[in-house]
Amino acid sequence: MQAVLLKGNQDGYQLILNQSASFTEIIAELKRLFDKLAAEPSSLEAARLSFDVLTEDRILKSGEKKQIEDLAATYPKFSIHKISSNVMTVTDAYQLKERENVHLISRTIRNGQEVKLNGDILFLGTIHEGGKLITTGNIFSMGNIAGILHAGYPNSEEKLILGNIHNAQQVRVGEQFDVIDDEKIDDNDQVVAYVNDLHILAYGKLKELKQINPKLYNRIGGQ
């Protein structure tokens, strides 16, 4: 099993850390890789090499991130530009709220109730079956959803719903809607509901957001 994959891009290098490998294995392989790169003639000629680190679906602790950064810093011409993952944490969501005009909703929406807003929503509450959350923007759901989510109201099909919608009664994006059943989507918080090129409501993973909606991907800090 390869713990670290090195890929070149126009801005430098990307290091992809295998989420199945132990952190000890990753550090050991990073050191071997850095030693090899430092000895290459092209590296010796470069003013500086910058690395973007992708941790896939693994969330690194702050100490683990620092360990990677400190390791790179032992090589005079190496630096870590960014460490990112395919996973949105609660902290990421709050940071998004701080950067953007995002409504934070943590209330309970009961059967027969309807909450309608303009703009993006970070939802941390509960929607009972028969309850509705409707907005003109995107919905970032980190709550308990058994009711109806409607992003892009009334007809904006470029909006998205992100989060765990496994138990939702129905999801809508613009004018497209889908009734959820247990086998249709995964029971996790990394689902993206979007309208595809055929104008059909489809489902993807958060790690696919760059392909699904590059504008939103860049907006929430993707590179």
From TrEMBL:
Pfam families to which the protein is assigned, alphabetical: MinC_C, MinC_N_1
The keyword Cell division belongs to this UniProt entry's keyword annotation: yes
Annotated keywords: Cell cycle, Cell division, Septation
Domain named Septum formation inhibitor MinC C-terminal: residues: 105-195
Septum site-determining protein MinC N-terminal domain sequence ranges: 4-83
BP terms from Gene Ontology: cell morphogenesis; division septum assembly; regulation of cell septum assembly
HAMAP family, alphabetized: MinC
Description of how the protein assembles with itself and partners: Interacts with MinD and FtsZ.
The protein's role, per its UniProt record: Cell division inhibitor that blocks the formation of polar Z ring septums. Rapidly oscillates between the poles of the cell to destabilize FtsZ filaments that have formed before they mature into polar Z rings. Prevents FtsZ polymerization.
Protein family: Belongs to the MinC family.
Record protein name field: Probable septum site-determining protein MinC
Organism of origin: Secundilactobacillus malefermentans
